[in-house]
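Open question from group meeting: does this chain pack into something compact, or does most of it stay loose? Before anyone orders reagents, we agreed to write out a predicted structure and look at it together. Recording both the input and the output here so the notebook holds the full record.
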Amino acid sequence: MNAEAQPKSLASYEFIALCVVGLLCFCNIAIFYGFYNYLQGLGIPAAWRGPLLALEPLTALALRPWLSAALNLSNCTRAMRIGVCLVILALASYPVATALPVLALVRILHGAGYVLLLSGLITTFTHILPQGRVAQGFGILSLASLLPSALMPPFVEAVTPFLPGPGYAYAVAAPLMVPALLLLAPLGRKTRALAAALPQEHSQRPAWAEVRANLRLPGVAALILGQLGLLTGHTIVYFFIKSWSLALGTGNPGLFFTCANVATIALRVLGMRHLDKLNPGRTTGLALLFLAVLVPCFTLAGSQTVLNVMAVFYGLALGLGMPLFNAAMFHVSPKRLRGLNTNLLLVAMDAGFILGPMIGGWVLAAGLSQQSLFVMSGAILLMAALTVLPVGRLTSAEKDV
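Structure tokens returned:
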């Protein structure tokens, strides 16, 4: 990409538009915090509620590896438009999709739209980041995944009493995606201009032999496995910390997530300017190592207050490590394959969100204690740390990206 075509600042239209589109993308996911209870209210059998919850991320997991190789700067805006349209259609269908087979189809449609939108966004994002602002750019984008979880549940709770039924809360969110289509119109023109400035091979789909060779490049597979370990360990905490909090017998279990999310957001807002001064590979490995020690210590918390203090440190480590995963991958990837590899990190994220609850369920089904879940999570995070720490030799804040 030549110097004239490449955006030189995070204040560019491309960067701001992608962050807003990302915010809207995660808003349509955050409204499903009560979906299990919604399925219960519809009379869906208990055995099918879990699969219906999983259908959307499973669809994303199935499609993302193919999309990671197929998307490039010249076609990703078109993929995002299609994704937005599918999401709007899925959201509008929830009020009438009350039978199990129809609801399953809507969940698959929703997952397909979500993965098209987010994969296209990430591919574009890797091309428009200015040199020297990579970690900061990913840090700002990552806030888009946190803010909806704070904004959308209160919105849904406020509007639901005025709607014909609970399913209409999902339909009400459909118009929120329309601004994404408006933002993507000029973005498409800008990305086509950027794509024209790239060598022709950047617009060609990599052969599977090249994808396999890419996975053998130093650091690439390690970061993908590390991301899988991080998300697997994190989702064990995410889905089972409430049970442990209730077992302590005091306080509001939701305060753990409040403390963790506030700490994460505060770190990213206050420390954003300093992220690119860090070695992303080494810092990510150290954050994972800290989490590997911290999570088993949850079993030592004798009260909700102590657990909430631990949640602050948990949120700080997550807030530091997650955007630096993307920055580290940016450093170790060839320019032509940055979009592919960043999307492969999302594949690992999808897999972690499925694998973590499964492992947790198996541990409890085997008759082991709740405390053993956090020890298991710590062991997984330790393996991820040992996998990622050597990548620090390949990345540095001064490296030309």
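Observations to bring back to the group:
The two ends are 12 Å apart (CA to CA).
The longest helix spans residues 100-128.
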